[in-house]
Amino acid sequence: MITRSVARALDRRDPFRKTRACFVLPKNTIYLDGNSLGALPRAVETRLRRLTKREWAKDLISSWNTHQWIDLPATVGDKIATLIGARAGEVVAADSTSVCLHKALHAAVSLNPKRRVVVTEDKNFPSDLYVLDALARDRHLKIVRVKADQVERAIDTKVAVLALTHANYRTSEVFDMKRLNHAARKAGVLTVWDLSHSAGAMPIDLNGTKTDFAVGCGYKYLNGGPGAPGYLFIAKRHQRKIAPALPGWMGHAHPFAFAKRFVPAPGMQRHLTGTPYVYGLTTLSAALDVYRGVSLKALYAKAGLQGDLFLFFALSEGASLGLRPACPINRASRGSQVTLRHPHAYAVMQALIAAGVVGDFRPPDILRFGFSPLYTSYQDVVRAAQLLVKILKNKTYRQHRYTKPKRVT
Ligand SMILES: *Cc1c(COP(=O)(O)O)cnc(C)c1O
Question: Rounded CA gap, 211 and 77, in Å?
Fold first, then answer.
């Protein structure tokens, strides 16, 4: 088949062949779900064995100092900083994304205390919307949810904070961060970006675009493992002005003085609440080393081409079988995933998974395919599109075992 040989040729020339070898990938599976749970980097296993057998078992509590466990939120934060256009000391890795978002939003609104409105997108990730609603309740604010193409128009001098997710989890649509930050800054609005679906998959320049606050997720493109810590970015220019929203002893200037009154640590350290989760941070740290020397521009270019190929193969035959694009066709407006609609999307995805292609379903009718160009090959992409078409043609998805819902989709 011509298409297979083209994909093979692209794989032979792929500069990311080497990073693919850094991952453990199951045989006979095409994994297009790295945007939901990244694959296992090989280095993690050895690193975790050392953490368990040496650092925990032998060195025990002294490891907080001798193996720098106590510095992990900052050292892992610094590694993430290099991927998102932040400087050392601007990012800490801790908590979950949702908790980091609570922290970022409370900080942002406290810097703009005279304004009562927070603008977001109505199709933002649900957890982000819940966090925003709680913020509104606690701080007596109004959340204005607008459609993606109305965001810029909603920015005015009544708005305290603009809170957006950079790449949408369902549609893959990407906001123009530079343009919106510029509009926000002109109106005196502070920006909070959620990078969960873009960091590690595309170039991001938080400082170059003058972002105020950002958060993101460790277990998606960053491959930090299930339940990996998230991260919080606060631009250096704001750091001294902000009291932590969730103070705890790990954010104290001198945690081991056991003082009765909270005195914030300098810099980002003050936003840490409790004891760092050493296993999660160690895993994430080892996973981030795969990014050494990687060009995010080249990575994003590969994802763009992979998305184009997938859409082309899936839609050229699948359009007459009920498939519709749900993501931008123009790759410059897309993140690192493509999404398609189909009236039987849930069953189609179950049938695909049974055929060895792992993507995911998002209600009501979305099929989502994430490309992690560090390890997704062109042959994976072309084969997945072909299997999708085959399932639609043969109506395999109509079988009862594919239509019954599972708990985690
Ligand atoms: C995945 C994701 C999250 C995840 O939040 P956790 O609290 O880490 O589970 C939050 N926001 C967005 C936009 C996401 O894509």
Answer: 17
For residue 48, give the amino acid letter.
L
176: CA distance to ligand 1 center in Å?
A: 20
Q: What lines the ligand 1 site, CB under 6 Å?
A: 96-98, 125, 127-128, 165, 169, 194, 196-197, 217, 230
What is the band of 407 on the pLDDT scale with cuts at 50, 70, 90?
Answer: confident
Q: Measured in angstroms, how far is the CA atom of residue 400 from the centroid of ligand 1? A: 32
pLDDT digits (tens, 9 = 90+) for 29-58: 999 999 999 999 999 999 999 999 999 999
pLDDT interval class at 2 (50, 70, 90): low
Give pLDDT tens digits for 20-29: 999 999 999 9
Alpha helices by DSSP H, listed for 267-407, are 278-288, 296-318, 345-354, 378-394, 400-403
Residue 22 and residue 69: Cα distance in Å, rounded? 25
Active site residues: 125, 194, 219-220, 368
Q: How far is the CA of 389 from the centre of ligand 1 (A)?
A: 31
Give the CA dihedral 209, 374, 292, 37, nearest 10 degrees: 80
Nearest CA to ligand 1 atom 15: 196
Structure confidence by residue, pLDDT tens digits, 98-118: 999 999 999 999 999 999 999
The pick from 97, 101, 132, 337 for probing ligand 1's pocket by mutation, whose C-beta has the most ligand atoms within 8 angstroms, reads 97
Q: Name the burial class of residue 170, with classes exposed (0-12), middle (13-18) and buried (19+) by CB atoms within 10 angstroms of its CB.
A: middle
Q: DSSP class of residue 71?
A: G
What's the 101 CA to ligand 1 centre distance in angstroms?
Answer: 9
Q: What is the amino acid identity at position 69?
A: W
